[in-house]
Amino acid sequence: MEIAYTVPTSLPITLNSFTASAITSPYTKIAFSTSNETNTKSIQLERSYNGVDFALATTLAAKGNKGNNNYDYTDIVDAAATKVYYRLKAINNNGNYSYSNTIAILVAVANKKGITVAVYPNPVRNNALSINLCLLKEEAVAIRVFDMNGKVVAHQTVQATKGQNTVSIASFKNLIAGIYTVNVTSSSEVVNKKVIKIN
Fold it and tell me: Which of 57, 75, 123, 178 gives a 20 to 30 Å CA spacing to 51?
């Protein structure tokens, strides 16, 4: 399970790539590549479990080269976590700093679940609802959205692959304000997630 980006960023360096992958519980592997580090003192990796509150995971000394610089780090995460967010903080020699974009990873394998489900954004305003699925095998997955009265207001079946999958429910942005339940059913599990729709 890996998420990889070529990242647009305002860092004082050029960030060429930034990836996170789940390995044996409770570890994740972070890797990134940079260039143009001539004025960079250090690069900090920050971790969050909610995408908002970040804490320092480690500080890496900048290599200071104009060419490509490759870094990797094995992080220890909370064994109860199902999703972890990461971002980079590049610090110049003069003390100024900037952040990269945030990446996220589901750690379903570490938690030995057949399927892990994350929904975002939550709450939803004028957006489609995105559902991130992480499976241990390829299979068909049924997705249904229920309103507060138990009525199905959206549904679809997807042929999900092993690992990361993202499904978009475009019609969610047209629903009225309220609390909805996203029901995800695989061959072995049923997962329900509450989603708040606001206007």
Answer: 178
